[in-house]
From TrEMBL:
Organism: Rhizoclosmatium globosum
Top EC class, one word: oxidoreductase
Self-association state and partner proteins as the record states: Homodimer.
Protein family per UniProt: Belongs to the LDH/MDH superfamily. MDH type 1 family.
Chain ranges of the Lactate/malate dehydrogenase N-terminal domain: 1-61
An annotated GO BP: malate metabolic process
Coiled coil: none
Superkingdom of origin organism: Eukaryota
Protein name according to UniProt: Malate dehydrogenase
Gene Ontology molecular function, alphabetical: L-malate dehydrogenase (NAD+) activity; mRNA binding
SUPFAM superfamilies, per the entry: LDH C-terminal domain-like (SSF56327), NAD(P)-binding Rossmann-fold domains (SSF51735)
Keywords associated with the record: NAD, Oxidoreductase, Tricarboxylic acid cycle
Amino acid sequence: MTRDDLFNTNANIVQSIGQAIAKHAPKAHVLVIANPVNSTVPIIAETLKKAGVFDPRRIFGVTTLDVVRASTFVSEIKGTDAEKTKVTVVGGHSGVTIIPLLSQTGIKFSQEEIEKLTHRIQYGGDEVVKAKDGLGSATLSMAQAGARFTNSLLEALEGKKGVVEPTYVYSPVAAPDGAAWFSTNVELGVNGVEKIHPLGALSDYEKKLYAEAIPELQKNIKKGEQHVNKA
Ligand SMILES: NC(=O)c1ccc[n+]([C@@H]2O[C@H](COP(=O)([O-])OP(=O)(O)OC[C@H]3O[C@@H](n4cnc5c(N)ncnc54)[C@H](O)[C@@H]3O)[C@@H](O)[C@H]2O)c1
């Protein structure tokens, strides 16, 4: 089962939570961790739009775990300290939509290492699902990732400056290519999304990953939007 397969189960749950947020807490900052994040975030957005309370600065898909995994996998093969090994991961939160930007780490990799690491980062979540064999997905690492993002956002809402986390937001970064929701590093502030970081320089391999991610992301986003807007 992939994250996208979870759509059928989770789409209605997420939509009903969106309706409750619109009614009872329209100014809430909404952190969406339920998968498939690529589609559940647009579901929340469309639900809030329908209720007239959509603010793109307050909706976040939690993609922190991809960055946590990327740091862990890189440090495993390079012998670095995972906490200090920063890997930028952009795009979405499933399979080919996850784009690790290993060229921006400052660490040297062979092409074989890049391809193996990229695959492992893209499918790390599915590895866990397979290993648990019907008993669910990542739990402790998901809790850690969720807690890290929540704490960062709370600090930023209280006025701390320079808080940057990766998150899937309503973004201009890939919008010209047709993906309105996209994850990059985002500076958080008192209103939520403060400043969306650009992609930065990509290697040829990363440009290829980006080109593969976009059609899948478009499909995932459309699926979420259509779920809410179906007649
Ligand atoms: N974004 C991430 O990094 C990430 C990582 C891992 C898992 N996940 C996602 O997190 C979600 C939870 O995963 P899990 O492994 O803990 O699943 P789980 O099945 O163990 O737990 C889901 C919980 O939701 C409750 N629930 C079901 N319907 C509900 C409703 N209508 N309202 C409120 N609660 C309801 C269930 O009772 C259960 O306790 C899944 O969508 C999973 O894909 C996200």
